């Protein structure tokens, strides 16, 4: 799944950037550690251990490259993006007009959707109707069971 990942929001906070930088440093430290392990294993004629550590070196280098690539392509903002608009990854609370019960859903990608857990796919009719809307917006949503009109009361 990661092979086909697409960044939807290319902004991160200063705190998120710092976390990525720590992850990069940790991966680079592991590469050094594993390279030293490969050399020691070869010196001790432990071929299988050396091969295993060489694979770990490749994996950690790949991971470090991906984190570095991410750091090079994102835009760092002073603060986290506000939760003003409904986007993928946000939890939306709304009331169906004429009803009293609040409904709350987290909008996720189709692979993560689990309606019983309150996670709906961004391809679902409800999510499509909510995406891009703000708190206070009244939205008419066409669903297989008929049209429904909702008012968004909270986005987080």
From TrEMBL:
Key words of the record: Coiled coil
Domain of life: Bacteria
Pfam families: GreA_GreB (PF01272)
InterPro entries to which the protein is assigned, alphabetical: GreA/GreB_C_sf, TF_GreA/GreB_CS, Tscrpt_elong_fac_GreA/B_C, Tscrpt_elong_fac_GreA/B_fam
GO MF annotations in UniProt: DNA binding; RNA polymerase binding
Every Transcription elongation factor GreA/GreB C-terminal domain range: 83-155
Coiled coil (UniProt feature): 17-44
GO BP field: DNA-templated transcription elongation; regulation of DNA-templated transcription elongation
Classification via PANTHER family: TRANSCRIPTION ELONGATION FACTOR GREA
Name assigned to this protein: Transcription elongation factor GreA/GreB C-terminal domain-containing protein
Gene source species: Caryophanon latum
């Amino acid at each position: 799944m990661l092979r086909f990942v697409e960044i939807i929001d290319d902004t991160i906070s200063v705190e998120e950037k710092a976390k990525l930088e720590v992850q990069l440093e940790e991966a680079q430290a592991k590469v050094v550690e594993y390279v030293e392990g490969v050399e020691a294993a070869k010196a001790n004629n432990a071929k299988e251990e050396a091969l295993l550590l060489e694979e770990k070196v490749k994996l950690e280098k790949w991971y470090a490259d991906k984190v570095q690539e991410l750091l090079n392509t994102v835009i760092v903002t002073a603060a986290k993006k506000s939760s003003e608009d409904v986007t993928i990854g946000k939890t939306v609370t709304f009331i169906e007009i004429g009803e009293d019960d609040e409904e709350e859903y987290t909008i996720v990608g189709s692979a993560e959707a689990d309606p019983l857990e309150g996670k709906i796919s961004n391809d679902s009719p409800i999510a499509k109707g909510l995406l891009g809307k703000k708190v206070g917006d009244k939205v008419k949503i066409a669903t297989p069971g008929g049209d429904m009109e909702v008012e968004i009361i909270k986005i987080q």
